[in-house]
Amino acid sequence: MNCKLIVQENNTTGQVSADIITMRIQLYLYFKKIVPELALMTSTNRDLLLPSNTRGLKPPIFFDMDAEVYITDILEIESYLDKIPPNLTDSQTFEDVAPNIYSRFLVYAVKPTESILKSIEKEICAVETQLKKSGGPFLGGSEPCRADCILFPKLFHIERFFFFTGIEDIISSDKYPNVYQYYQMIYNLPNTEHIKSDRNSLVEFFKMKGVNPKKISNEMFMNIDILK
């Protein structure tokens, strides 16, 4: 399949935007064994990347170059890709696992309280329970599903934030052994470096969400290895 994924460029770092939707699409394509051409969109090259009748679309945008089809809605992109083998495991049952984990994390990142932290930990416990139930290594069992593509980017942002700020080891191997193995397994999948947001882009993303820059300054970030 000849395709292109048009993503927003981070204005500060010049890298792919660190938003979880872009990461979700990239992970979905990875599990579908589709390797797209990656194009970074800026305010200056939008007209070069998109024909005039599609310039109102916002990235991330999936472009099927063979069919000349542009799609921007995440659910429509996934539905379009579902027609192409290999098929991912049905995930409807698992997509409700930890549904509030990311919204609570964003609140905590801006204004941390013990009660919000406990609510985040409760959501992680739900993931732990599901992985025990399925037997892993994925949410639905032995094969990846859309729910994994939805959940992992959220866990990635959460784990990186807590690691960078040194608040605590939020996905502890002692406390959440199955979640820890799940996270490490997807994090270390081969040929996925382009999917995981670079360090500076993550910092800029957190700042954009209202996080105090003193918590995660670029200088602090650069002194931390991206892998534990």
UniProtKB/TrEMBL annotation:
Superkingdom, taxonomy of origin: Eukaryota
GO molecular function, a single term: transferase activity
Residues annotated as domain GST C-terminal: 70-211
UniProtKB keywords: Transferase
Annotated InterPro entries: Glutathione-S-Trfase_C-like, Glutathione-S-Trfase_C_sf, GST_C
Segments crossing the lipid bilayer: none
SUPFAM superfamilies the UniProt entry points to: GST C-terminal domain-like (SSF47616)
Annotated PANTHER family: CHLORIDE INTRACELLULAR CHANNEL CLIC, CHLORIDE INTRACELLULAR CHANNEL, ISOFORM A
Protein name as catalogued: Putative glutathione S-transferase DHAR1, cytosolic (Trinotate prediction)
